């Protein structure tokens, strides 16, 4: 598993921030910053240091009297009431206090993992494991499905983007972090995980059999009837830019000047893949996205490489929906702001913050350090990207195997309306 800085090539938006696809054999950890090297170390080195490179200077404005009163009261008065219970060690109480401190920021992505949870989190972003094949996140304080990945057990079981997860194997998800939910959903191949899903206000019981997840990265082809070429991109992995290049070459060879780039249900991934793909459509040096550190360090502006090889006269539509997140939103937002493409579909998920992972006393502190901003200055986090032409995709459409968003894109590309 690689570790890097917030500016390292091949950084992963998926694991730096934001949510965790339950995909086997996918190294999502690339791009998580680890304190102690590169730009992260240069930031930390400006602070009073202890052995691990972190600032241990007491905050003189913090009155800890109430904390110590609570600590001592619990130590002197608490009585065990269950035979299976044990008193927490001093270290466990300290970890609990740090977890509470992190949670006080009311950011589901800023969390502290004690050593055991830190190991489970590290395992979840490295190596191979069995899952169900869906991207999840906490939205409006509810554990929510961003998207089931194409061809996975979650999709086959009927889980949909926007489903709210009420329980996992009978356990309520109230207050459950994304990371903890991931560890509960993962398991051995062939075993079953049970969900209570809330959809349109109604509870649904869905069981999914875990498996090793393999997701196709691209799919492309020409619709002979309309002359529209369609490139679907399902993830942003380390191979996606190369695969998109191949698909784009086939588009150019087709002679079509009408292109759909389909990012629906794409949960994101590597930032550099999004930048590389955007570079087909944007001139060299044009802003793709800005990594805004809130004034705590200089912003990092990611710019187009300037492939600029779109055939003259080409009209482009980008399809997005509520399952388009992270790198998908960066690409869609960049093309929309540059007026390089027309966006059709429904508002994207709104996943646009950046985390760094810091080792702390055997545990790990995951901290939000930046946010993604589109070239026109729109915050992706919590807002998503709004299409130029909004076209819903309903449950009835799914049942009828009808795709009104693609049909609307074809209409727009062939008629201009």
Could you give me the name of the CATH homologous superfamily of the domain at 218-352 and 373-415? 2-enoyl-CoA Hydratase, Chain A, domain 1
Percentage of β-strand residues:
15-25%
User: How far is the N terminus from the C terminus?
Assistant: 48 Å
Envelope shape: globular
Question: What is the strand tally?
Answer: 19
CATH topology call of the domain at 218-352 and 373-415 = 2-enoyl-CoA Hydratase, Chain A, domain 1
| Tally of individual helices | 12
User: Which second-level CATH architecture of the domain at 218-352 and 373-415 applies?
Assistant: Alpha-Beta Complex
Class derived from helix and strand content: alpha/beta
Helix content: 25-40%
CATH class of the domain at 218-352 and 373-415: Alpha Beta
What number is the mean pLDDT?
A: 85
Largest sheet report = 6 strands, mixed
- Provide the gyration radius in Å: 23 Å
Unreliable spans are 1-50
Describe this structure in words.
The protein has 417 residues and is α/β, with parallel strands linked by helices. Among the domains are: 135-209, Roll (Pdz3 Domain), CATH 2.30.42; 218-352 and 373-415, 2-enoyl-CoA Hydratase, Chain A, domain 1, CATH 3.90.226. The chain is 27% helix and 24% strand. It contains twelve helices and 19 strands. It is globular, with a radius of gyration of 23 Å.
